[in-house]
Amino acid sequence: MNTLFDPIRLGDIELATRICMAPLTRNRASPGQLPNDLMRQYYEQRADPAAGAGLIITEASQISAMGQGYLDTPGIHTPAQAAAWRRITDAVHARGGRIVIQLWHVGRISHVSLLPGGQAPVSSTDRPARGKTFIAGGFADCSPPRALRTDEIPGVVADYVHAARCAMEAGFDGVEVHAANGYLIDQFLRDSINDRDDVYGGPIAQRTRLLLEVMQAVTATIGAGRTGVRLSPVTPSNDAGPDSDPQALMNHAMHLLAPMKLAYLHLIEGQTGGARDVAPFDYAALRALAGGTPWMVNNGYTREMAQQAVAEGQADLVAFGRPFIANPDLGRRLRQGAPLNALDVAHLYGGGAQGYTDYPTLHATQVG
């Protein structure tokens, strides 16, 4: 019987524990979408697998200038960005940690002020998302997108490949392709958003085509053993209306992904950051199709839930999001059943060290 604190191998990546830090947008990158010293400190604080995470998944990082959707999010598509990330991966590795970067294209969840030349966001559709994004000056409605032409899509796939190469140059242990939460790939997957009449729209086999092409291209470039993917079957985040048959959609996606022997599959159960039972979905049935690929679960897991999920074989790993924001030593706290720091909600997004790198560890609290 496995425990949350046992080691595990994810493809080519060896982890000391099954405790993962979920990707968490924090909006603290420097101009040029560059990771900075404050970000290095943040990840370094959580890197020691004895106290923090067995695996850190970075905040979502755009694969191209057109992939950006929020102010001050980092990129992974220029030499300067890769060099800046390298300082972070070196710091994490120096503490014995493992770190992968989440590759992100937001699609229609963006604003013209964030995109090169004030261009419109791109998506599977030209219908705007009913939602807001964060720009200079505060929150703003998402800008109306334009639907990608069929002949443009290979260029988007190439952007994922380029970003994966940049990630390897930056010293990451691997990448996680973000195919969840109503962003670009999810905008192609769901028939509630995808209204195309080309080979990327219509039946499930065509709506999953972009996901398949991205995953094939990235794994061919850096290896399946260093590639994971994140899926969110039923979350309504970012105006992602429910697919007409999410179980059939995800089952087909799993039939495509399982033979790739990926490093891991990362599943958001229910509504991202919200109700776990937002819509019915059989995650166990989906996992049965995964062909033994390591299975990471996410969303609202408590210590007890996480321990039970791993012990009973419902999951191989558990990703914790907000608990890792307020508790850089979450791994130690989970081992000891220690209380958790309160989350500084007012300083989640943007700003400096407050609510970012100033949370006390359990040791500091006990000494104090």
What strand line-up does the widest sheet have? Answer: 3-4-5-10-11-12-13-14
Largest sheet: 8 strands, parallel, barrel
**Outline, from the CA principal axes?**
globular
The CATH topology label is TIM Barrel
**Rg calc:** 19 Å
Strand content: 15-25%
Task: Please tally the helical runs, counting DSSP H or I stretches of 4 or more residues.
Answer: 12
Q: Give the % helix.
A: 25-40%
Number of domains: 1
In short:
The chain has 368 residues and is α/β, with parallel strands linked by helices. The chain has helices at 37-45, 79-94, 153-169, 184-189, 204-207, 209-222, 246-257, 283-287, 303-311, 322-326, 330-336, 362-367; strands at residues 8-10, 13-15, 19-21, 55-62, 99-104, 122-123, 132-135, 138-141, 146-147, 174-178, 227-231, 264-268, 295-298, 317-320. Helix 1 packs parallel to helix 2 and helix 3 runs parallel beside helix 6 (209-222).
Describe the secondary structure blueprint for this structure.
Layout: E1 8-10, E2 13-15, E3 19-21, H1 37-45, E4 55-62, H2 79-94, E5 99-104, E6 122-123, E7 132-135, E8 138-141, E9 146-147, H3 153-169, E10 174-178, H4 184-189, H5 204-207, H6 209-222, E11 227-231, H7 246-257, E12 264-268, H8 283-287, E13 295-298, H9 303-311, E14 317-320, H10 322-326, H11 330-336, H12 362-367
Parallel strand pairs: 3-4, 3-14, 4-5, 5-10, 6-9, 10-11, 11-12, 12-13, 13-14
Antiparallel strand pairs: 1-2, 7-8
Helix pairs in contact: 1-2, 3-6
